[in-house]
Amino acid sequence: MQTDSRAAHPQTVVIADDLSGAGECASEFTPRGGSTCLQLVPGPATGLSLPGPGVLVWDLDTRDTAPVLHPAVTASIGASRRTYLKIDSLLRGNWPLLVAAVVRAAQHPALMCPALPRLKRGLHEGRIDIPPEQTLTHYTASAVEGLRQAGLQAGHHRLDTTGEGAMREGLRAALARDAVTVVDARTDAELDAMARVLESLPTPYTAIGSAGLAGALARQRGILAAACTLGAPDRMAVLVGSLTGPARQQLSQLAQASGEAVRWWHPGQGLQAGGEAGHKPAPRLRLYATRCEGQPAPAGRELARHFARDVAPHLEDADCIVATGGETARALCDVLGMEHLQVLGQLEPGISLARLPGPGRPRYLAIKSGSFGDPDTLVRLARSGGLLPAIP
Q: What pLDDT is stored for residue 45 in this prediction?
C-alpha cells in the first residue's frame, strides 16, 4: 500500500479496530453536505484513493487480533494535528495493545475516556460504569491497570469541578505526567470539557475513546454530525451476522413487520435454498442471517467471512445493504473487493451510511454495531427507505 500525496497532511486521523466503530466516528467528523474517506486496512488495497486532506479514517479490523500499524497509518499519524483512536465503549477486544501501538507511534500527550453518555455508559474511578439493567459483557478491571500491563505509563485523573481554569490546568498537568491519562466522565458536558482542553494544547495530541469523545471533539471544531437519509432504494438487503441479543431481536421485529422470511445461513451448510425463488419479481426487501443452533459457533471473524462470501452473489441488485455487526460489514467489503468507503453521515446515532465505490448506479452500505439499538431499529431503517409502509 502506498500513501497518496493528497493525504500527506490530514488535520485529523481516526483509527478504529472495527468497521462499525470506524463508520460511527467518521460520521461524527463528517460535516453536513460532505463526506469522509474510510480506508480499509489491510484489505486488498494497493494505494489510497482519498478526497484530500482533512479527516482520514482507518479501519484496522483488529478487534480480536494482534494490532499492527501499517506504515501508511503511522505516516498519517505523524502528519496530523489530532489522532483519535476509537475503542469499544465497554472496552472489549485487544484495546490495551492497540492503545500502546498508537501512543508509541504518535509520541503525543494522550487522553483516554471511552464513556458514551447517550447509551448511559460512563467511566468511574477508571472502570466501566453502566446501569444494572444493561447486562452487557464489558471489561471489569481498571483501565489504568490494563494500560500498564501493556507496558504504558498510565495515570488516572478526575476533572476539577471548581471552575474552568482549574479544570484546564489540572488536566494539562496530568497529560504532561503520563503517557496516557485516563479521565472519568459520565456526561457529554464532561467530554466537551476534555475536548476544549485537548484543542487548546500547543502540540498535537492523541485522544482515545468511543464515539462519545469523538463527537465532543467534532463539536469543539464546529462540526455538526451529518444526518442523512436512505432516500428511496429500489431494493434493500439486510445482513445480520451478529449473534448478540439486540441484533436478533431487531431481525425478528423486521421479519414480523415486513412479512419476509429470513434466509438462514448455517456453518458448514451455507445459505438455505428458497427465499427469492418464491417471489416473482424478487422482493424489494430481503433478509439474510446466520444461525448456529445445535453446534459451536465459529469465531466471529471466520463466521462473518464465510457468511459474507455466500451471501454476496445475492446482493448484486441491492441498492442499499444494511450490515449488522462490524465484522459482518467488514467481511462483506473484503468479499466485494472494497478498498475504501465514502461515509456520508449517520442515519441515526450509531448507524453510519457509506457510498460504495465503483461504476454504475450508486450503491450504499448502512453499518450498525450488533449490540446497538432498540428492537425497532431495523424496522425504522426499512420504513425510512420506503421498504415498509409509513406509520399512519
A: 44
